Task: inverse folding
């Protein structure tokens, strides 16, 4: 137990350090990159003088260090600032976009777990058979076909031709669960195709490795059924790399699914990030990247903690 | 029963569940070309914020379908014999969305805030000696010297539009965003439903008192016929088209030209070509070699060929056309004076001109903007045409914001500046010598490109002061001819936007700005 507490303390401290480094990096990267929010605000029709005045009002004419100190001080007080455009706090903006992102990420992961792990296990169990080849063929295709192609095909079939599901849009859970489900089904399926391909492949490889271990042979010698060997012994140990991939996928899916969000017009964090970057809305970009870094670190921490649940060697 | 039937039943059940929420009656769902980022049409110089302004606010004057100014909030107005005093009386019954009456003080404060941010406004305000509120509904603008462009300035639909706001709001620093969004226009913003990056919601203003005349352009009776308008942000054009076909949205403000064929054969969708064109613009930078030399700029305008640009942009003659007029074609001040032999791709003559100008081979830094399909091909065409005439061209490719940021830098191209950039203007932005932003030629204070030419400025000032329509036309012709000589910019041709209307939508009025009054949905 003391080991566990010490581990947790170290991870929390490293989280703070990671966030601090990310803050400095993002702040500098944005300020030193080409792109002037004042020019975007003023528009094509503005004079240089007007652009200067807007820059001054936004505080962008102050020295870089001063800008950073002001931002850091406010950030430590929990105030991540206000969007240059929307007259809204960035925390409010991010919270508006979290629900769709979480829904897509969790929906896609749920589909992935439900489909990919059984496929991977079956492929491993029937290693070399036609079943294995079909699963691996699907896996190669799933990883190779671009997401937007999958999205457009699904829209064409299920929305335009069959008219079963909407082409686009996100239905907030508060406005009805049925609408919510219909709105996320196609984007989740689109995202899940890649994840299923990836996780099925990892599961297969991992289970094949474990099935070659001595203790599996021992279990067989003891007369255990194939099913018991697979589920109770092989899959639990093989779960460590699978959990790692799934955990990283969740983190990726929360902030990095711009293409799917764009194709299905889902107002998630990915789109908010792209919009903010294109408009050089510095406070929003900084806050999103900090938030996503935080999510990454937390998910990694959770992944580490779950290793012990599956593999007794880690616990010891 | 086949598997697909079970699936269909499952989806149907889901859909039924999804449709349990109350539907809004008479809701018009539109996808605009750009996402609405700011709710202050004076502070933010973007097209979509201007369009939003026309929903929520009203203007003293407005352009009709023929682009002629017509009174809008104003009931009657007069000009003194010496042309120094303009008196305006507001219509009866004008109310803010909070129920308070619109007053002359509100109008004066709004004109002042607009004048601090708009180029024409700045010129006009500099000529004003006094603002007088005579009573609740009447006010005067007293000028130091005659200013013939008062009504055209107050009716301007190009960015920035002189929208009228309540005095308490209009007194906000023009370089800071307003925080209260109360207008007197035909629609009201549902601020609590505004989700930046997702959607903007407007509801009908029940107290709006439309003019008695029929709606025409941005003028006339603005009768809101739907209860609610939703502007949905949808970044992917293909998705927009699919959603329109499926009836999930009612209007696409501008369908990309390359996707028109997908909709053309669909019987439930109507495509409306806009009545008003927009202009492709190539701006040279006057600050640095080689384009600081007027002879080199002349060689450039001779070398370029409009036809090549419109072919590259789309080419369909229904939507693209050549037009050498700085003030656009088919407008009051349209002219082709001085344009013979220009923008026709006479590369041999251009070579000769370059030789006469002793062009030393200094490269032109050409900015190539990506991410905007309509403009994507223009810079490569410019590069090819200029190189054919003997120019050396370095093309830099970047997304729009990077190009914009670079565009405002006055440094030489090798230190982060630029030589030539290409963009576009809506017709309402370029209607005359005063409003056309790229013809401003007051050196460091001009727009990026920084044209510096006393004669051009003097002609623009003459135009601003003159009120006689015949003399104004004559000055505009002179500006056209002179600009073709000194080349503040090169018009590269024009295009028409196309609006997509879904099933049951009718009454869409072609105006210089997308408008939603008069539109019905069955």
Result:
């Amino acid at each position: 137990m003391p080991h566990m507490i010490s581990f947790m303390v170290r991870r929390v401290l490293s989280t703070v350090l990671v966030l601090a480094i990310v803050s400095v990096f993002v702040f500098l990267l944005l300020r030193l990159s080409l792109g002037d929010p004042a020019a975007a605000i003023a528009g094509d029709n503005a004079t240089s003088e007007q652009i200067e005045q807007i820059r001054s009002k936004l505080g962008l004419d102050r020295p870089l260090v001063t800008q950073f100190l002001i931002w850091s001080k406010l950030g430590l007080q929990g105030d991540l600032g206000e969007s240059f455009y929307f007259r809204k706090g960035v925390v409010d903006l991010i919270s508006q976009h979290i629900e769709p992102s979480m829904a897509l990420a969790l929906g896609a992961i749920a589909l992935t777990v439900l489909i990919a792990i059984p496929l991977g296990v079956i492929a491993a169990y029937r290693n070399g058979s036609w079943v294995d080849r079909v699963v691996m063929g699907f896996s190669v295709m799933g990883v190779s076909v671009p997401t937007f192609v999958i999205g457009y095909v699904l829209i064409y079939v299920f929305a335009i031709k069959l008219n079963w599901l909407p082409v686009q849009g996100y239905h907030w859970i508060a406005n009805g669960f049925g609408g919510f489900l219909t709105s996320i089904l196609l984007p989740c399926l689109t995202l899940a195709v890649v994840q299923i391909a990836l996780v099925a492949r990892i599961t297969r490889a991992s289970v094949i490795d474990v099935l070659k271990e001595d203790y599996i042979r021992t279990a067989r010698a003891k007369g255990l059924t194939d099913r018991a060997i697979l589920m109770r012994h092989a899959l639990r140990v093989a779960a460590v790399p699978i959990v790692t991939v799934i955990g990283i996928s969740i983190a990726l899916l929360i902030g990095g699914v711009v293409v799917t969000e764009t194709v299905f017009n889902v107002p998630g964090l990915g789109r908010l990030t792209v919009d903010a970057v294109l408009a050089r809305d510095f406070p929003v970009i900084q806050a999103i990247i900090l938030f996503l870094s935080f999510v990454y670190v937390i998910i990694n921490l959770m992944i580490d903690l779950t290793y012990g649940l599956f593999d007794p060697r880690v616990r010891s | 029963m086949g598997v697909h039937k079970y699936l269909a039943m499952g989806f149907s059940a889901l859909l039924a569940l999804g449709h349990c929420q109350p539907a809004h009656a008479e809701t018009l769902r539109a996808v605009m070309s750009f996402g609405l980022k700011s709710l202050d049409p004076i502070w933010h110089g973007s097209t979509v914020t201007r369009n939003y302004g026309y929903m929520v606010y009203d203007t003293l004057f407005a352009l009709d379908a023929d682009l002629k100014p017509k009174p809008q909030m104003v009931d009657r107005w007069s000009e003194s014999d010496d042309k120094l005093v303009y008196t305006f009386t507001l219509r009866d019954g004008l109310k803010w969305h909070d129920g308070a009456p619109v007053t002359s003080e509100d109008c004066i404060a709004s004109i002042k805030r607009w004048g601090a941010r708009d180029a024409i406004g700045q010129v006009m305000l500099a000529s004003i000696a006094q603002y007088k509120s005579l009573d609740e509904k009447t006010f005067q603008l007293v000028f130091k010297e005659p200013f013939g462009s008062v009504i055209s300035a107050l009716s301007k639909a190009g960015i920035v539009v002189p929208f009228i706001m309540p005095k308490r709001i209009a007194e906000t620093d023009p370089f800071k965003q307003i925080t209260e969004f109360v207008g007197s226009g035909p629609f009201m913003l549902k601020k609590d439903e505004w989700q930046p990056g997702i959607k903007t919601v407007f509801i009908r203003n029940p107290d709006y008192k439309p003019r008695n005349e029929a709606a025409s352009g941005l003028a006339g009776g603005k009768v809101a016929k739907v209860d609610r308008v939703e502007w949905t942000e949808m970044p992917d054009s293909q998705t927009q088209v699919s959603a329109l076909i499926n009836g999930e949205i009612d209007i696409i403000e501008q369908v990309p030209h390359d996707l028109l064929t997908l909709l053309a054969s669909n019987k439930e969708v109507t495509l409306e070509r806009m009545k008003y064109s927009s202009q492709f613009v190539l701006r040279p930078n006057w600050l640095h070699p080689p384009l600081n030399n007027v002879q080199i700029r002349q060689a450039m305008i001779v070398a370029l060929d409009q036809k090549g640009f419109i072919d590259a942009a789309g080419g369909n003659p229904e939507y693209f056309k050549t037009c050498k007029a700085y003030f656009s074609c088919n407008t009051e001040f349209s002219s082709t004076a001085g344009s013979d032999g220009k923008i026709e791709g006479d590369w041999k003559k251009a070579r000769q001109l370059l030789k006469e100008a002793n062009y030393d081979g200094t490269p032109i830094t050409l900015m190539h903007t990506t991410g905007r399909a309509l403009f994507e091909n223009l810079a490569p065409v410019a590069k090819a045409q200029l190189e054919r005439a003997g120019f050396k061209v370095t093309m830099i490719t970047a997304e729009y914001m990077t190009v914009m940021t670079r565009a405002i830098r006055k440094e030489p191209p090798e230190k982060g500046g630029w030589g030539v950039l290409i963009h576009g203007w809506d017709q309402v932005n370029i209607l005359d010598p005063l409003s056309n932003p790229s013809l401003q030629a007051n050196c460091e204070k001009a727009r990026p490109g920084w044209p510096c030419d006393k004669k051009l400025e003097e002609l623009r000032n003459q135009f601003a002061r003159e009120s006689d329509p015949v003399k104004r036309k004559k000055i505009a012709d002179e500006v056209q001819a002179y600009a073709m000589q000194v080349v503040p910019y090169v018009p590269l041709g024009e295009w028409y936007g196309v609006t997509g209307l879904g099933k049951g939508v009718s009454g869409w009025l072609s105006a210089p700005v997308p408008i939603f009054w008069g539109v019905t949905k069955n």
